């Protein structure tokens, strides 16, 4: 018997939206988008789902990178994995670390509220490092 998971509150809305995205994606298996790049001294094409490209574009923008420059950096540090796979792992690491950072800020804000503090140190931005194999980027 499989374990059952039922999120609550806002988590339930996010969970259901994510499941709907998966369901919609399964309706059209040909939705992969191929983009062509010149990485270092070779030409290559990278094929990702539209949602992955959207997410990658967003991450590059948030980091202040041109998409091609970020792909080059990931390619340079990726080891044996394929470029698309390394890009996916990079994005997962980026959003995981950002979520951890935000969870820490939320915990600090909650503690400040419980203590009656009017100054919330959690609002102070902190740099985080996002790793792509052996490389890292500061956010």
TrEMBL record:
InterPro entries: RHH_dom, RHH_sf
Superkingdom: Bacteria
Limits of the Ribbon-helix-helix domain: 33-94
Protein name: Ribbon-helix-helix domain-containing protein
Source organism per UniProt: Nisaea acidiphila
């Amino acid at each position: 018997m499989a374990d059952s998971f039922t999120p609550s509150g806002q988590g339930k809305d996010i969970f259901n939206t994510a499941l709907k995205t998966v369901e919609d994606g399964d309706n059209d298996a040909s939705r992969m988008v191929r983009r062509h790049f010149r990485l270092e001294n070779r030409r290559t094409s990278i094929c990702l789902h539209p949602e992955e490209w959207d997410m990658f574009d967003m991450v590059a923008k948030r980091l202040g990178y041109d998409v091609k420059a970020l792909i080059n950096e990931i390619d340079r540090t990726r080891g044996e994995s394929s470029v698309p796979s390394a890009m996916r792992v990079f994005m997962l690491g980026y959003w995981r670390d950002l979520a951890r950072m935000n969870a820490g800020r939320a915990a600090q804000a909650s503690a400040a509220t419980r203590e009656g503090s009017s100054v919330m140190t959690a609002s102070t931005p902190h740099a985080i490092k996002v790793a792509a194999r052996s490389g890292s980027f500061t956010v």
